[in-house]
Amino acid sequence: MERSITQAAARDDAAGLPAQDGMAAADSGTDHEVGEAPQIASWATRLGRHRTLWGFGLILLCLFVYGASQPNRNNTYLHFVLQAQAWIDGNTSINTPGYQDVMPLGTYPDGSSCVATADNPDCAANGRGIIPFPPLPALVLLPFVALWGLATNEQLLAVIFAAIDVGIAYWMLGYLPVRHRIRVLTSVFLGLGTVLWYAAAIGSTWFWAHIVAVGCLLLSIGLALSADRAATEPEPLSGLVEAVRGLFRWPGGRWSLIPLAALGTLTAALFALAGRGSSASALAGCGIVMSLVAAALAVVVAGRRGVLAVFLIALAIVGGIPALVLAGAQSRAAIVAVEAVLAAVLVALWWLVRRRGTELERRLSELLAALSSPESRQVAAGILFGLAVTARLTILFGFPFLLLVGGGGNWLKRGMLAGAGAAVVLAALLIYTYAATGQLFNPAYQYQYGVESGYGVFNYNPAWSITDIRYIPQNLMIMLAQTPRWLPSMSGVYPNNVAGTALCTAGQARSLFDVACPLMEPDAIGTSILLASPAFLLAPLAWRPIRRLRIDRTTAGATVAVLAIATVNLMHFSQGWVQFGYRFSNDFVPFALILVALGASRLGRLWPVVLLVGLSILANAWGTYWGVALGW
Question: pTM of the predicted model, to two decimals?
């Protein structure tokens, strides 16, 4: 890739020569426009190579398309807005909104808490409820809810954040050995050829969670790739033997065993405390110690203290900003105190610049060097991966990617560095869940399964667990083979025309876009990812080097991550509902995007890539139109 850029730069210089000739001709009295045309062409060529402008251009393109897809900005389901508002009000439970995916709370006559259900008449509902979703999507909304309250437009924010996701994807793909046109096409495929478009246009609870998770996961993958540029180079399969041997080269020596053993002990203690019904503050104390031990493990494994800066920055952003928002919402004095501290910091920096400017520059250079080290980037990748998990839990099973790709040098070191970063976030997730629900794992999931398994129109089996291997066959059919509804007689979200509005009652001619009498419309249960996003067919081509008994760690890691996340999702009783496409694909699309880009590059021909991406865009334009038109 670097050689092709160099060659392009040489062509730029050549293109500049006619412009100079034209300007000389103008001086001798010829037409001045003869020299301007090559100059403009040369300027446009240089502008086209400005990668930052390409990234912003893709963001603006998706902003326009997403915004135009849903001009009404309506959004029915606002679980995360309600959750953010509840935090501002000092609660972990929300006011029950009157729609699904909320476990209603109540109280027994003796004052103890309970779940208010029809089969528990002694439990009186108190108007509060718990949502079954992880907290990060609500945390991202917190500053906006602090400003606009329950009027916060989650759909508009979904448009903005989804467009930013596409820009992050373009940045991430820049670390792959693919031509720029493949990089652009793959980014466009994510933005307009996958169900990320539909998620942005709808923007309700479930789709907002996907958008937040995709952004965090893309950042994590990009940092890992940036720290390990050799991960994309195909190597002989015989190298696997050496990689296995590398597992026995323990990073950090025997000293790393101490924090690793302590981390395992503290994790067991966390579960033991929860099992005994200890207070949330006791678990929080255990979690703080776990975080300190995880940071110590990262330092020992990396062999450099600079990785601590990554933890501190993450704590300031992920913990500090929400804390300031909540403190400011509760007290005006807190805002004044924060402003005073910030003013003092600015004065101190000004004094340091005047008195010790050279020393300050040296310290900043040392900090930047520490943050840019491969080990620090791997820790940061782990933190961002953990954050993605706190938006969509099943992303956790994509962690093997960070064993194979990232800074560190061998599998164990990469995994321990990323694991140390992720452990801090996941410990915080467990502690928050315990504080909010009294359990380490949210009981609202099981409650929701009990509700939906009783609907009777889906093939759910209440005797099976909420995640059961026996659900895979039927869910695999939804993922790969579900088709739109052809010549539908009823318009509704339930399968097999169970309920809804009669269609074509006046004998109208059917049309592809006629809501009253459609030729076909999306099935609310979902649509095959191969029909909704046929460019995914490029992904297996990333394995073409296997013909020469060669493979790269990036392809192997991305494949394992896609298969692991998809398998766990397929075991879940529900695959999403009232959707176009297969929204669970958003959980693994950042990894699949790597395979699509590498597969497109290794195909060696551009026209099939353009064709498949074009078909994906048409399919998602059709599906998004119908989702908006049907009010989904």
Answer: 0.89
Pick the most confident of 38-47, 391-400, 482-491: 391-400
Does the pLDDT at position 265 exceed 80?
Answer: yes
Q: How many CB atoms lie under 10 A from the CB of residue 323? A: 14
CA of 400: how far to CAs of 390, 391, 403, 405, 591, in Å?
18, 19, 5, 9, 11
Average pLDDT taken over every residue of the chain:
87
Burial grade of 187 (CB within 10 A; 0-12, 13-18, 19 or more): buried
Q: Per DSSP, what are the bridge partners of residue 95?
A: 128
Contact indicator for 551, 545 with CB cutoff of 8 Å:
yes
From the number of C-beta atoms within 10 Å of its C-beta (0-12, 13-18, 19+), residue 171 rates as middle
Contact 597, 227 (CB under 8 A): no
| AA identity, residue 201 | A
What is the three-state SS of 179-193? CHHHHHHHHHHHHHH
DSSP state at residue 375:
H
Higher confidence at residue 587 or residue 515?
587
Among 415, 30, 5, smallest CA distance to 180 is for 5
User: Tokens for 423?
Assistant: 């452990």
Rounded to the nearest 5 degrees, what angle is found at the Cα of 360, between the Cα atoms of 356 and 363? 145
